[in-house]
Design brief:
Blueprint lengths: L6 H21 L3 H18 L2 H9 L3 H8 L14 H11 L8 H15 L2 H10 L2 H4 L10
Length: 146
């Protein structure tokens, strides 16, 4: 039975809930915080990627998640000029200041894990390789052929 009356909305709600459930498995049972963590990390990842690659990643996200991914999108400021893991974590932490305490590293690990599980391996590999080495260190290198 359809929840919304439109299959496309039902599918994106279902996929989004799966992603949020997986994030909550890492950071605790707070759906609002999981949404905040997802949006914060995706925004900072998007902002650090070359524009074309950011768009390709966005195209693979569930429709609802894609909406938050593009919220406050400013292609003129891409890619951002931070190169180290510490800078990336500081950027994420700044987005989480108004949320219950969750460490930037925990937030990044949770979201990168969701991307690893739900985005095509080829796309994850392209994103990984486009990141500066310092930021790449936060993401386990994708295994070839997975």
């Amino acid at each position: 039975m359809s929840t919304t009356g439109l299959d496309v909305f039902d599918r994106t709600l279902h996929a989004t809930h799966i992603w949020l459930d997986e994030i909550m498995d890492s950071i605790g049972p707070d759906r609002a915080l999981a949404w905040k963590v997802l949006s914060a990390v995706l925004h900072k990842l998007r902002d650090r990627l070359p524009l074309e690659l950011a768009a390709h990643l966005g195209a693979q996200l569930p429709l609802l998640v894609r909406g938050v991914y593009y919220d406050q999108f400013d292609p003129a400021k891409m890619p951002a000029n931070w190169h180290t893991a510490d800078e990336f974590m500081q950027e994420v932490a700044a987005q989480l200041t108004d949320a219950r305490t969750v460490g930037a590293r925990d937030a990044i690990d949770a979201v990168f894990g969701v991307l690893d599980r739900h985005i095509s391996t080829g796309q994850v590999d392209k994103v990984y390789r486009a990141l500066p080495k310092g930021i790449r260190a936060l993401w386990l290198e994708p295994a070839p052929g997975q």
